[in-house]
Amino acid sequence: GQNIDQPTEMTATEGAIVQINCTYQTSGFNGLFWYQQHAGEAPTFLSYNVLDGLEEKGRFSSFLSRSKGYSYLLLKELQMKDSASYLCAVRGGGYQKVTFGTGTKLQVIP
Amino acid sequence: GAGVSQSPSNKVTEKGKDVELRCDPISGHTALYWYRQSLGQGLEFLIYFQGNSAPDKSGLPSDRFSAERTGGSVSTLTIQRTQQEDSAVYLCASRLGGNRQTEAFFGQGTRLTVV
Question: Which residues contact A56 (CB under 8 A, 6 or more apart)?
Answer without folding.
Answer: none
